[in-house]
Amino acid sequence: MRKRILVTGANGQLGQSIAKLVSANKDLDFTFVTQKELEFDPLENIDVFFQGKVFDVVVNCAAYTAVDKAETEYELANLVNHLAVKRIAEICKTKDINLIHISTDYVFNGRNFQPYIEADATDPLNVYGKTKLAGEQVLQEINPKGIIIRTSWVYSEFDKNFVNTMLRLGKEKNQINIVSDQVGTPTYARDLAEAILNVIQHSKFEDQTVISNIYHYSNEGVASWYDFTKAIFEFEQINCNVLPIETKKYLTPAKRPLYSLMSKIKIKDIFDIEIPYWKDALERCLKQRKD
């Protein structure tokens, strides 16, 4: 019997990436829902949506990700990243559904300066990180079958993201300033989508010692936003001068962690996942974008 899988946030980067991957997959039965099809306000809409439906796995890609806007839109960010996660977790617990919830490296304060492992203390610096952490914590309290996957700097060939923004700016301007002292790893949404599919189909996904755990996933390697931008322009042969600047000279409403590199050893070892290097992933994304 094919696993029946619900993916929320279908119109986001990760949701679209999963949909693109599974279009020809006959081993899994997917249902994709957008924000309009599954509204979280009021929360009772979530209960109504699940009535009469049967799923084996829910992949919760729905999230409020506007980091700076979250500083003035706390209630909306908290609704999507925390309260809706609580309701979905309660339903999954009641219906015995496996839940995969996507979280973020922004649950950390960036002062570790060595790759964060899953057990490291959390201390988010901004509203976005705080609401995502609240979602993690309530999910762990309810303890449905499933896992949390933290990721970072997600981009894709779809929608608004850092890569698409830099491509536009690089063609519009002769010179741009990019922060060089925030360090982490870009994540190609397609690679994260493949990792999620590997997890779902892995025999250990039903193992009681493995589920109800937190895992980290990003592409391999280390980069700053400056490094990321330089690589984008080099691959696309864009003649735009990129100047490195410090975070203190580029003030934003939300504080960002200066260091959010995450260790991926746990997810690689348990689910036998091979993770591509970030520059190789970027090159593949840029080719997909042209296609």
Automatic annotation (TrEMBL):
GO terms for cellular component: cytosol. Pfam families: RmlD_sub_bind. The keyword NADP applies. One of its GO terms (molecular function) is dTDP-4-dehydrorhamnose reductase activity. It comes from endosymbiont of Galathealinum brachiosum. This is dTDP-4-dehydrorhamnose reductase. InterPro entries: dTDP_dehydrorham_reduct, NAD(P)-bd_dom_sf, RmlD-like-bd. It is an enzyme of class 1 (oxidoreductase). Its cofactor is Mg(2+). It catalyses: dTDP-beta-L-rhamnose + NADP(+) = dTDP-4-dehydro-beta-L-rhamnose + NADPH + H(+). Pathway: Carbohydrate biosynthesis; dTDP-L-rhamnose biosynthesis. Belongs to the dTDP-4-dehydrorhamnose reductase family. Residues 4-288 form the RmlD-like substrate binding domain. Binds 1 Mg(2+) ion per monomer. Its EC number is 1.1.1.133. Catalyzes the reduction of dTDP-6-deoxy-L-lyxo-4-hexulose to yield dTDP-L-rhamnose. One of its GO terms (biological process) is O antigen biosynthetic process. Keywords: NADP, Oxidoreductase.
